[in-house]
Q: What sequence folds into this?
């Protein structure tokens, strides 16, 4: 998914202010909470994203739901409502987490495989990725039967595709391109 430039700017601005105030972890928790609420409650999501609901009403509802959140987080979500960017909240929260990881020297890797990887292989893979990147790697695994075999690694914004599906697709392309007399 390509991120919008506006969402990137909002995430950076929020991260910088939170960092200055020393509340990055707290803001991350707040964004995660409201993101979870948006994901789990179709009613709340419909309410927040509805153009028929007045901005003032949305802001009151958000302030009530986020009453335990840091004031910066509440102000930020209300700013998004004012700017009619409520639909970008989840994307901004993900970018905020990415900025936090970058600042801490951490890179996120999502590994797709056909079967579960055992602990030893996960450890070896993590160590190799850390050696390649020179950073601490947070590893997430996902099953994907479409790969047929091998693995696909999403490392930050890079893709390392060592799947059998990709290899078969490449072979198919070579065969189609070959001229048979």
A:
């Amino acid at each position: 998914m390509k991120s919008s430039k506006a969402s990137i700017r909002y995430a950076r601005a929020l991260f910088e202010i939170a960092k200055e105030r020393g509340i990055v972890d707290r803001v991350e928790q707040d964004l995660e909470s409201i993101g979870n609420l948006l994901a789990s409650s179709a009613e709340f999501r419909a309410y927040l994203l509805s153009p028929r609901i007045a901005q003032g009403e949305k802001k009151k509802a958000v302030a009530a739901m986020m009453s335990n959140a840091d004031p910066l987080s509440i102000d930020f979500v209300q700013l998004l409502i004012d700017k009619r960017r409520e639909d970008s909240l989840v994307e901004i929260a993900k970018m905020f987490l990415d900025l936090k990881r970058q600042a801490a020297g951490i890179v996120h890797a999502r590994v797709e495989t056909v079967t579960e990887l055992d602990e030893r292989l996960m450890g070896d893979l993590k160590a190799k990725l850390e050696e390649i990147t020179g950073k601490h790697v947070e590893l997430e695994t996902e099953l994907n039967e479409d790969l047929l075999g091998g693995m696909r690694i999403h490392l930050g914004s890079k893709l390392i595709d060592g799947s059998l599906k990709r290899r078969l697709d490449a072979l198919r392309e070579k065969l189609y391109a070959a001229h048979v007399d």
Q: What stands out?
A: The longest helix spans residues 5-21. The mean pLDDT is 91.
